[in-house]
From TrEMBL:
InterPro entries: Ig-like_dom_sf, Ig-like_fold, Ig-like_Receptors_ImmuneReg. Keywords: Disulfide bond, Immunoglobulin domain, Membrane, Signal, Transmembrane, Transmembrane helix. One of its GO terms (cellular component) is plasma membrane. Gene3D superfamilies: Immunoglobulins. Residues 203-214 have a biased composition (Low complexity). GO terms for biological process: immune response-regulating signaling pathway. Residues 151-177, 203-224 are annotated as: Disordered. This is V-set and transmembrane domain containing 1. The lineage of its organism: Eukaryota, Metazoa, Chordata, Craniata, Vertebrata. It comes from Equus caballus (Horse). The chain crosses the membrane at residues 123-145.
Length: 224
């Protein structure tokens, strides 16, 4: 009973075998295919399993280096991923699992392929599309970030150049106000002089004989 219990478990790992499909890994529906599992050790028990079905398991003993598992009258459900391993008959040492073999079953009457193959292809396409979308999103975010930084850097020189314009405008307004003040100051003395002349004319007329000068100067008295 102890020997039977140990036969269920692998005590050590041996080199993994190879698995190939004959005549091809793509076969038609209702046809036959041979899965050949080969190792470098003789007198072993080969085990064939299926990745999509944990309950699928076929064992076959061999005195040589390989064994052939014959699959007949294939259906679409027989398509999938197969792998094999082996264990020694004496010490029950187990090998590593072989590389996966993808078996495709086609139905040329209606152009269909096994559903498992379609599913794997759909997963690959969906994964590729997702990675491409993430890459394009990253590029878009990077482009927007660079454009934002470029716009903010252009605003600072514009603000700096606008300050001299304002200072020149203020200087021009100051010059105009100064010129207006000077013009007002130059006009006021003329009015005062004319007023003084009007007040002095009667007193001077009393002392000077009444003679009309060659050119008389008339000054307009400013209105109050």
């Amino acid at each position: 009973m102890i020997v039977e219990f140990l036969s269920l478990f692998c005590l050590e790992k041996l080199p993994k075998p190879s698995l190939i499909a004959l005549p091809s890994s793509m076969v038609e529906r209702s046809s036959n295919v041979t899965l050949k599992c080969q190792s470098r050790i003789q007198n072993v028990t080969f085990i064939l399993e299926k990745l999509q079905d944990s309950g699928y398991k076929r064992e076959q003993r061999s005195a040589g280096h390989h064994v052939e598992f014959l699959l007949t009258d294939l259906k679409l459900k027989d398509a999938g991923t197969y792998f094999c391993s082996y264990k020694t008959m004496a010490s029950h040492e187990c090998s590593e699992k072989s590389e996966h073999l993808q078996l495709m079953v086609t139905d040329y009457h209606d152009g269909r392929v096994a559903p498992s193959i379609k599913t794997d292809t759909s997963i690959i396409i969906l994964t590729t599309f997702s990675l491409l979308s993430i890459f394009l999103l990253f590029i878009s975010v990077l482009f927007i970030y660079r454009c934002t930084r470029h716009g903010s850097s252009n605003e600072e020189p514009t603000k700096r150049t606008s300050h001299p314009k304002f200072s020149e405008q203020e200087a021009t307004d100051a010059d105009l106000s100064k010129m207006e003040r000077i013009s007002i100051l130059t006009e006021e003395p003329q009015e005062v002089t004319c007023a003084e002349l009007n007040t002095k004319v009667p007193s001077e007329a009393a002392s000077v004989p009444a003679e009309e000068p060659a050119g008389s100067c008339e000054c307009a008295t400013p209105k109050a």
